[in-house]
Design a protein that fits this description.
By secondary structure, the chain is an alpha/beta fold. Helices cover about 40% and strands about 15% of the residues. The strands form 2 sheets. A 6-stranded mixed β-sheet has the order 1-2-10-7-8-9. Strands 5-4-3-6 form a 4-stranded parallel β-sheet. A hairpin with a 2-residue loop joins β1 and β2.
């Protein structure tokens, strides 16, 4: 089991200074924080860039796609070597995007859990998409771009790096959102430790997968409220974001909106295949 140190609020402030020359703040439109407008289409580039700016050797990661894209983008900008491991079931849109970068792309295993186990066995500095000090601090920089009077921030949760970073960086109430199909963090917080679950597939593929044993994010999120959303709620949120704001979002990107909680919702990503997005829109036709 790996031991990862929890970052401090000072680490988040330092991360913001570190990534500022590379990433512009994303807009806040009404109550929507548009992280899907990042150059890789996801907030994940924040933590990836912060981690790679502090790396002194080749890096390895496992990813459902978005963090891999963040690592690939950062590695290309910084001239570093990187290996990204994705599962055979990873989103085709994300895998196609990854192939455009000069990184070693490894497709391994039937799901994210298998890809993660394989990545941990490879040489180099392993950078987790969520269980990493620098990644959590980088994700937390989102909170520093929000007005100080924001009372509630609603955040999608997979492994918990985004929610942990934001909770660390703000005094606002943080509400995490997990898909009912794979509520790994809700179960972990319920038991006080990581418990492997057998969930089902979810359109929020970036939130699918078990959490690394001993992940520091579980301890960091104690006391944070976590709610579940159904597949129907996620798809409805994707449609509403498209209809009302002209936004293309992936399932995980719309999860915070799907919760229907008043506050700033982190719209975390847009990397969805045209076919999947079109099918979601079609299922809502006539409603």
């Amino acid at each position: 089991m790996r031991t990862v140190q929890a970052p401090s609020r000072a680490d988040v402030v330092a991360a913001a200074e570190r990534i500022r020359p590379y990433l512009a703040p994303t807009p806040l439109i009404g109550n929507l924080k548009l992280e899907m407008l990042q150059p890789t289409g996801s907030f994940k580039v924040r933590g990836a860039l912060n981690a790679l700016l502090r790396a002194d050797e080749a890096v390895v990661t496992a990813s459902a796609g978005n963090f891999g894209l963040g690592v690939a983008w950062a590695a290309q900008r910084l001239g570093l070597a990187a290996t990204v491991v994705v599962a055979e079931t990873a989103s085709p849109a994300k895998v196609e995007a990854l192939r455009r970068f000069d990184v070693e792309l490894v497709v391994h295993g039937v799901d994210y859990d298998a890809a993660e186990r394989h990545a941990l066995s490879l040489p180099g500095r392993y950078v987790s998409p969520y269980n990493d000090t620098d990644v959590i601090a980088g994700a937390g920089t989102i909170a520093l771009e929000l007005p100080e009077d924001v009372e509630t921030i609603v955040v999608p949760i997979g492994g918990g790096g985004l929610a942990a970073g934001i909770a660390l960086a703000t005094d606002a109430r943080v509400v995490g959102v997990v898909p009912s199909a794979f509520p790994a963090m809700r179960v972990a917080l319920e038991h006080g430790r990581v418990v492997e679950i057998d969930g089902t597939q979810t359109i929020a593929d970036a939130l699918h997968g078990n959490i690394e044993q001993g992940s520091v994010t579980v301890e960091m999120l104690r006391g944070v409220e976590v709610v579940e959303v159904t597949e129907e709620q996620i798809e409805d949120a994707m449609r509403r974001l498209a209809r009302d704001h002209g936004l293309v979002t992936e399932g995980a990107g719309a999860a915070a909106v799907a919760a229907g909680i008043e506050g700033v919702a982190i719209v975390s990503g847009r990397n969805v295949t045209r076919e999947t997005f079109a099918a979601v829109l079609q299922r809502g036709a006539g409603r």
